[in-house]
Amino acid sequence: MFTGIIEEVGIVRSITKGSLSAILDISCSKVLEDTKVGDSIAVNGVCLTVTSLEETSFTADVMAETLRRSSLGELSKGSKVNLERAMQLNGRFGGHIVSGHIDGTGTIISTKKEGNATWVEVGTSPEILRFIIQKGSITIDGISLTVAKLTDKSFSVSIIPHTGSETTLLTKKIGSIVNLENDIVGKYVEKFTVTPTKKEVSYETLLENGFI
Questions:
Q1: In sequence order, what are the residues at sequence separation of 6 or more whose Cβ sits closer than 8 angstroms to the Cβ of residue 56?
Q2: CA-based torsion, 78, 80, 86, 88: positive or negative
């Protein structure tokens, strides 16, 4: 489990691609503290298991399903990636609940400066947009962000200077693919309230299941 607060930007030393899988070798420092083989590290929002450790890097296997559902297959030597270790129970919960199991990808549609902030608009599928609400949480490449605008084809977030300087998001170009994870709470609410006769969440189903 993660919080979406990026600890460090790492650099891909190499990516070894097989016919159906890949091995990532990532250079970093902070996220290696207290990390051991078998621990989880979110790479651009994707939960990966550390398979080997060196003083300034770690490796992780990327399975075929992960390559299909994420943007990790587009990484190359020198790519920068957002990194976060699994959260500790004795730490501050600064973001929101992030599983590291992404729901799909989106595409950067536009960016625009407004004062000291930068607006980033992301287009994605109806399957992902249905779980996004205005002022709710969304994870983009592992970054916990608040949805500021929402349309039937896209959503927008406003990036403060600190987030921009501590993550890779503002280095993305128009057309770049990003990993998206919806707020897990919304997915569970739908799962618990959908019945064989009611395909959509409604006031009645929320009331029947004790949410109202």
A1: 27, 28, 29, 32
A2: positive
- At residue 187, the pLDDT reads 87
Split at pLDDT 50, 70, 90, the class of 199 is: low
Counting residues of the chain whose pLDDT is more than 90, the rounded percentage is 78
How much is the pLDDT for 92? 66
Rg (CA), the chain: 18
Return the amino acid letter for 110.
Answer: S
User: Position 79: which residue type?
Assistant: S
Mind listing the pLDDT tens digit for each residue in 42-55?
999 999 999 999 99
Pick the more confident residue, 101 or 211. 101
- pTM tops 0.70, yes or no: yes
For the chain, give the secondary structure using H, E and C: CECCCCCEEEEEEEEEECCCCEEEEEECCHHHCCCCCCCEEEECCEEEEEEEEECCEEEEEECHHHHHHCCHHHCCCCCEEEEEECCCCCCCCCCCCECCCCCEEEEEEEEEEECCEEEEEEECCHHHHCCCCCCCEEEECCEEEECCEECCCEEEEEECHHHHHHCCHHHCCCCCEEEEEECHHHHHHHHHHCECCECCCCHHHHHHCCCC
Closest to 16 in 3D by CA, of 80, 69, 53, 67:
67
